[in-house]
Amino acid sequence: MDEINLKLPARPEYMSVARLATAAIANRIGFNIDEIEDLKVAVSEAGNFLINRYEDISYLTIDYKISRNRSILTSVKASGTKVPKGENKEDELSLFIIESVTDKVTKQTEEGIIKGFTILKTGGGHLEQGGSGICGKKGKGRRYVG
Amino acid sequence: MFYGIMFLKYQERIDKGVWHMNINIQEKWNERINSWNVSLSGEIDIYNAPELKSSLLKLIDEKNGNIIVDCTNLKYIDSTGLGVLISALRRVKDYNGEIIINNLQPYIYKIFTITGLDKVFTIKVQE
Question: Least CB-CB distance to B46: which of A12, A134, A142?
Answer without folding.
Answer: A12
